[in-house]
Inverse folding.
């Protein structure tokens, strides 16, 4: 752990993809910190760079065409981007684990559930087959697979989506990682299973003290699960704040738009709000604010100059020319 | 779920709802679960529904068993080996028609007659079967071993490595492989029949893996972008392990199908080479060189060509039927019907 108590510190991370269409700046100058035991939510529309940020952390960007151009990822005091391949592989799964979006495709269809779980501890903890098997069954029980001992020898297709996601979680947690990155863990599941999975992650997090990065585009999930939130748009952090603060007093027009887009089941029937327009093509960004074409509060300066990253309170930042005004409008008092 | 004992929140979380439903509907099976059919069992069922494939499977099995135990049984029953040349009788000809003894009488001794030197044709055909099948299987195994690893490595690494590796395959492909094999065989011509046989394995094996490498590479290319590979990498699994533990098993379907179709192809090549005199040498027999000997006297002793020829054709047909059947069984989506 670094002296300031941060488990993970991402500094000025830039991940670009070279395509025929030009350089896609999927992640452009992203910085954030995560303290031990905390949960960080990353929200944003599709293509805003949420997943690429996290794949960059464990260096799983497909290269070519992807490349981490600059930045630092300080995990427990070491810059992961400078580690040799062998060392980063020892960290993947052992200390930083990931859960993926689609449990239907993220398990190997040709391997028994038990084998896939055993592989983890055999590689990282040096378990023998028998030990690994016992551990795998224990993990399956922990995540609530009934009849874990018998079901361990099933193949993934014999499991339902929710159970497969449980298996993924069991896999991710089997080496007791310090950081769990959950990349839209509930997107592919139906609502009741979603709640179970989130509750499970919460419980396990409480029991093991793991830090969690939760990537999602579901604001409801963020509200219920996280301590801090990052709002990403076009590869940049648009707003960063404590969860409660972000929901009560957003300091960015984009965040406001996102919050307004959440359907309110108690409201009278009417038109659902949506932010007009589409996310920009990050290969051809114009100067100025990338959100300007869709922004309600747009002014001349937004099209001309890239907005500053304004500090509103100690841990509330917003990327907007008018961050303070928006913040005051929401009812906050900028420091 | 019991209605009188309401489970608390935490218990509900840890119970997948589909299991709860299963218990609801079938209380007598509580705790047990239905065993799903595996991919292989499914494929096996589909294979058994295909009459031609079953025919192929039966014939191949019978011929294989006969080839393996046949020569021994004949040795035990009649007392001669496939290369036994009778020296006692000096009749005009030693080539007896099927079921015929030295004096034209009916006998069970030579159901397929004898060849020019008086060797029992049935024993020779069975021994030929042994060698032909052996050549086919060994060369296919070599193609599996080299082709699968070569293709999987090229496909997984990708980029420039893949490019170089596959261009090598392309170059080897463009050489007319029969000529390569003939050159190899005549350059290193061995003095003993056994040596020649080993050379044949090497020659056939070295050209048989190319298509396999291409097939596996193609499969791996499409598989490696699937999320489970990313998931495996994210859990710290090494590249080698991903290739051989995660990717290769996933290519098994097409590999099995292609391997089954490679066996008859190799056997045919072997027969062709032996027919030309490059392959298996007497006193060892293969269907190719038996046919080659038989064709010299096709007018007077037709059985010397017919029996090895028909046996070989039957085997090749059956293997091809079996291969086609396997393809349909393992890849049901590919069927156009």
């Amino acid at each position: 752990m670094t002296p300031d108590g941060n488990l993970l510190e991402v500094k000025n991370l830039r991940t670009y993809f070279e395509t025929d269409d030009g350089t896609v700046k999927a992640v452009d100058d992203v910085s954030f910190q995560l303290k031990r035991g905390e949960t960080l939510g990353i929200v944003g529309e599709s293509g805003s760079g949420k997943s690429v940020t996290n794949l960059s952390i464990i260096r799983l960007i497909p290269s070519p065409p992807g490349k981490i151009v600059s930045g630092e990822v300080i995990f427990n005091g070491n810059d992961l981007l400078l580690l040799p391949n062998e060392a980063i592989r020892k960290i993947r799964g052992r200390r930083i684990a990931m859960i993926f979006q689609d449990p239907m495709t993220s398990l190997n269809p040709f391997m028994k559930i038990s084998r896939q779980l055993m592989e983890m501890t055999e590689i990282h903890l040096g378990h023998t087959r028998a030990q690994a098997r016992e551990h795998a069954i224990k993990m399956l029980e922990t995540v609530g697979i009934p009849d874990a001992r018998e079901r361990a020898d099933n193949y993934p297709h014999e499991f339902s989506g929710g159970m497969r996601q449980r298996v993924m979680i069991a896999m991710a947690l089997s080496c007791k990682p310090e950081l769990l990155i959950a990349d839209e863990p509930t997107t592919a599941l139906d609502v009741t299973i979603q709640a179970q999975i989130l509750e499970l992650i919460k419980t396990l997090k409480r029991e093991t003290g793991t830090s969690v990065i939760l990537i999602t585009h579901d604001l409801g999930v963020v509200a219920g699960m996280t301590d801090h939130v990052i709002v990403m748009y076009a590869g940049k952090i648009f707003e960063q704040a404590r969860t409660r603060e972000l929901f009560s007093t957003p300091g960015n027009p984009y965040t406001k738009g996102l919050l307004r887009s959440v359907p309110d089941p108690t409201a009278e029937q009417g038109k659902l709000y949506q932010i007009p327009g589409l996310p920009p093509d990050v290969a051809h960004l114009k100067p100025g604010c990338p959100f300007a074409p869709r922004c309600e509060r747009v002014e001349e300066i937004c099209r001309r100059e890239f907005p500053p990253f304004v500090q509103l309170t100690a841990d509330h930042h917003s990327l907007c020319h008018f961050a303070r005004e928006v913040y005051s409008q929401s009812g906050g008092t900028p420091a | 779920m019991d209605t009188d004992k309401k489970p608390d929140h935490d218990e509900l979380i840890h119970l997948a709802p589909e299991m709860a439903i299963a218990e609801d509907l079938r209380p007598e099976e509580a705790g047990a679960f239905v065993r799903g059919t595996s991919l292989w069992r499914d494929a096996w069922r589909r294979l058994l529904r295909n009459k031609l494939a079953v025919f192929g499977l039966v014939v191949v099995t019978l011929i294989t068993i006969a080839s393996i135990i046949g020569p021994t049984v004949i040795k035990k029953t009649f007392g001669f080996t496939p290369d036994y040349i009778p020296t006692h009788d000096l009749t005009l000809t030693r080539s007896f028609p099927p079921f015929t003894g030295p004096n034209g009488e009916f006998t069970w001794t030579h159901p397929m007659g004898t060849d020019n030197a008086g060797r029992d044709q049935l024993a020779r055909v069975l021994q030929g079967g042994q060698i032909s099948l052996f050549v086919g299987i060994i060369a296919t195994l070599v193609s599996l071993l080299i082709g699968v690893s070569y293709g999987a490595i090229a496909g997984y690494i990708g980029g420039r490595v893949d490019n170089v590796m596959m261009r090598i395959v392309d170059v080897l492909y463009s050489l007319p492989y029969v000529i390569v094999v003939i050159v190899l065989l005549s350059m290193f011509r061995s003095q003993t029949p056994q040596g020649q046989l080993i050379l044949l394995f090497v020659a056939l094996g070295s050209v048989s893996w190319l298509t396999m490498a291409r097939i596996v590479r193609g499969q791996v290319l499409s598989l490696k972008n699937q999320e489970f590979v990313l998931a495996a990498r994210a859990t710290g699994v090494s590249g080698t392990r991903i290739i051989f533990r995660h990717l290769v098993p996933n290519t098994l379907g097409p590999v099995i199908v292609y391997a089954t179709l490679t066996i008859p192809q190799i056997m045919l090549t072997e027969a062709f080479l032996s027919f030309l005199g490059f392959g298996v040498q007497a006193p060892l027999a293969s269907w190719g060189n038996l046919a080659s000997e038989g064709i010299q006297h096709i007018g007077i002793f037709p059985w010397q060509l017919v029996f090895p020829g028909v046996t070989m054709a039957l085997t090749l047909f059956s293997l091809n039927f079996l291969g086609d059947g396997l393809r349909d069984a393992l890849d049901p989506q590919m069927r156009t019907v």
Summary: Chain B has 14 helices and no strands. Residues 1-7, 9-34 of chain B have pLDDT under 50 and may be disordered. Chain B touches chain A at residues 10, 12-19, 31, 33, 36, 38-39, 159, 226-228, 230-238, 241, 245-246, 249-250, 252 (CB under 8 Å). The CA atoms of residues 133 and 262 of chain B lie 12 Å apart.
